Q: What sequence folds into this?
């Protein structure tokens, strides 16, 4: 079992909490039991326990270990998956009408990869791309690819930490189309690299139709990524995005003409790109840079700088080393001060 961050006396796994929840539920159902606390009170206690638990490997300290037993796809000591299951159990208690949905989507699966494959397949399926076919494709890639296993967990952590409207790991996994779009791209990118380009493009097309997110399957995207809202996001074929980057809705990482070859932006680690930003051409957004909402970027942006405007200009430098984690992208005051001084 994976240890969790906190004082040594409080280190514990989410799996332990799950076991305690099951024991308390059994006790509540036993009329002769001395522990007669209500189910709702038990759930609140468990929620408090989960809030204290933070998966170590999501911060890069440890890597999840694959189950040596074989092909289930499960990970030994998988704190993220255990937290998702616990949250799903709590939600089923709070909203019984969703219990069947939560069981089919999460609780009936033996690992995060299979649950994710089921959820995305259900959202993308149509009359010609059947749910069973899509689930087979997703699970085959997700379960076998160790890099994607790590990335999808770090992405889930990013959504939970950086999006204040994200209630839980469970809600991100079930409902956030930015997360679904990103994980479908990871599968499509793996297929593209295997030479299965037509299938990869078919997945890209369905994601564009269903979620309004268009990411070319050849684009290279790091881990710990947040696609906040996702609507209107466009990422071109030769774009490269580093680790721990946050992209708001309406961002375009596009080319600047009909030229072929390496023609799309390169975004450095920890960068934050605001809503409706357009970045055109094979230019570099430096590590830890912040681009203010609505900007048009046509030139390289230095590391840890703040750029704003049409066309974008560097107006200062960010205090945070990794602005994508703080999500502070209000540059209006500095921008107008810069414009006033320039005039």
A:
């Amino acid at each position: 079992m994976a240890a969790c961050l906190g004082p040594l006396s409080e280190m514990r796994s989410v799996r332990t909490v799950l076991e305690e929840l099951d024991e308390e539920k059994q006790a509540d159902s036993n009329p002769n039991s001395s522990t007669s606390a209500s189910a709702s009170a038990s759930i609140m206690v468990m929620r408090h326990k989960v809030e204290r638990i933070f998966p170590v490997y999501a911060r890069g300290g440890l890597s999840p270990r694959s189950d040596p037993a074989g092909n289930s796809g499960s990970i030994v000591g998988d704190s993220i998956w255990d937290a998702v299951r616990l949250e799903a159990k709590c939600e089923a208690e709070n909203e019984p009408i969703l219990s069947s949905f939560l069981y089919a989507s999460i609780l009936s699966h033996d690992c995060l990869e299979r649950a994710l494959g089921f959820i995305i397949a259900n959202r993308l399926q149509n009359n010609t791309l059947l749910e069973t076919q899509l689930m087979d494709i997703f699970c085959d890639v997700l379960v076998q690819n160790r890099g994607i296993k790590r990335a999808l967990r770090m992405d889930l952590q990013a959504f939970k930490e950086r999006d204040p409207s994200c209630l839980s790991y469970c809600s991100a996994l079930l409902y956030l189309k930015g997360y679904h779009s990103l994980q479908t791209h990871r599968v499509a990118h793996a297929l593209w690299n295997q030479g299965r380009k037509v299938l990869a493009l078919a997945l890209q097309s369905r994601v564009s139709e269903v979620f309004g997110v268009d990411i070319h399957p050849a684009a290279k995207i790091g881990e710990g990524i947040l696609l906040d809202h996702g609507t209107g996001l466009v990422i071109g074929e030769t774009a490269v995005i580093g680790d721990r980057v946050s992209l708001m809705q309406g961002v375009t990482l596009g080319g600047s003409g009909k030229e072929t070859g390496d023609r799309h932006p390169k975004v450095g680690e920890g960068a934050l790109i605001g809503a409706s930003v357009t970045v055109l051409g094979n230019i570099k957004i430096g590590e830890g840079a912040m681009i203010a909402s609505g900007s048009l970027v046509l030139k390289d942006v230095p590391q840890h700088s703040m750029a704003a405007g049409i066309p974008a200009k560097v107006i200062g430098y960010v205090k945070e080393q990794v602005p994508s984690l703080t999500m502070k992208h209000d540059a209006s005051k500095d921008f107008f001060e810069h414009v006033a001084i320039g005039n």
In short: The chain has a mean pLDDT of 80. Residues 213 and 277 are 15 Å apart (CA to CA).
